[in-house]
Amino acid sequence: MMKKTSPIKVPMIQPTMPPPEEYIAEIASIWITRKLTNMSPKHQKLEEALQNYLDVRQFQLFVNGHQALECIIQALNLKGEVITTPFTFVSTIHAIVRCGLKPVFCDVCEDNFTIDVSKIEGLITEKTSAIIPVHVYGMVCDVEGIQNIADKHNLKVIYDAAHAFGVQVKGKGIGSFGDAAMFSFHATKTYHTIEGGALAFHDTALSEQLLARKDFGITGPESVEYVAGNSKLDEFRAAMGLCNLRHIEEEIEKRKRAAERYDMHFSNVAGIQRLPVQKGVTKNYSYYPIVLNGYKLTRNALYEKLREKGILTRKYFYPLCNELECYRGEYGDAEVPIARLISENVLCLPMFAGLTDEQVDFVCDAILK
Ligand SMILES: *Cc1c(COP(=O)(O)O)cnc(C)c1O
Q1: Which atom of ligand 1 is nearest to the CA of 196?
Q2: DSSP code per residue over 49-110
Q3: Ligand 1 atom nearest residue 64's Cα
């Protein structure tokens, strides 16, 4: 018999949307320009605005974060093996594999869930060409430690910064680290363009190639220099991005308020591990994960209990990427005990800008009582 589930009282995520009039006003000019896509005025305006907001040197928009990641892997001409972590959204690993590379899984740190720098060098072989670390939940990787290893072994570094929109480290935009950083502007992220993504990078020599790589590799009316797909962001999505960018500060502020209310409820509770505070790092409150560590309920039991009360949560990230059907057994046994431990005990609680105090209290009552 199917378990009875309550109607949804608290969703996991609710995408941010501007007032409809604002969006309609923003798109109205598209009927005059008749430019719907191909890096037109809205695209240009958004690219400039985001480059400023994110405080990065080179910046380009893409149709989504995944395609952006594939484009930069190809533009950097990576070969062989890439060191990454299995505690990420499967897109990170798919991008590596779809570009013909082998992912090598490194374990993560117990406190902030990002790549454990002390375990990277043991995984480097003569085939290693890059490290692709992930700023999980907006927690910042040890960017200095990673760069030191990359410099020593002549490796490229591409950050998956899909969760880290707007995060700053000691006053520097998160996209300034490594050779490049990928952002995702998917509807479920802190900032979105419905679907969308971007790359921040340093080397100006990559600009033209990336521009071509998002447009079938076309470099001129009669020349195609690269074998590439189509990764262009259209004008309607760029318009959504322009609207959402006007509200981003208040959106993050609302998330902060919800996160602080969760913190208040959990402050004296044993067995519930929360995200650490990272010194000199600003937060974007993209997710509110808890790790159950000796709590009276297991993660799975809590997930079910909340679902029965109409509260949606996510086992994010579970299973680990190396244990998904498409990758299981493909790349040898990954030694990732910490990643496994976190993956089996983590639960992301509802988090979005419109989450009310009452909803947070309702979720916490259900967890604690
Ligand atoms: C969302 C996400 C992606 C993919 O981004 P899309 O814009 O959906 O293609 C990649 N990595 C991580 C960690 C993500 O959360």
Answers
A1: 7
A2: HHHHHHT-SEEEEESSHHHHHHHHHHHTT--SEEEE-SSS-HHHHHHHHHTT-EEEEPPB-T
A3: 7
Which residues does a 6 A CB cutoff place in the pocket of ligand 1?
64-66, 88-89, 91-92, 134, 160, 162-163, 184, 186, 197
Of 135, 31, 151, residue with least CA distance to 85: 135
Given a contact cutoff of 8 angstroms between Cβ atoms, the answer to whether 99 and 79 are in contact is: no
Ligand 1 midpoint to CA 29 (Å): 30
Average pLDDT over residues 62-73: 98
- Please state the pTM of the whole predicted model: 0.97
DSSP 8-state class, residue 316:
T
Whether residue 308 has pLDDT greater than 80: yes
List of E strands, the chain: 58-62, 81-84, 102-105, 128-131, 156-160, 168-169, 172-173, 180-184, 197-201, 218-220, 223-224, 272-273, 288-292, 346-349
| pLDDT > 70 fraction of the chain, expressed in percent and rounded | 99
Q: Is the dihedral of CA 181, 182, 187, 192 positive or negative?
A: positive
CA-nearest residue, atom 10 of ligand 1: 91
CA-closest candidate to residue 342, choices 87, 85, 93, 83: 87
Give bridge partners of residue 218 from the DSSP assignment. 224
Q: Which of 144, 147, 153, 93 is CA-nearest to residue 121?
A: 153
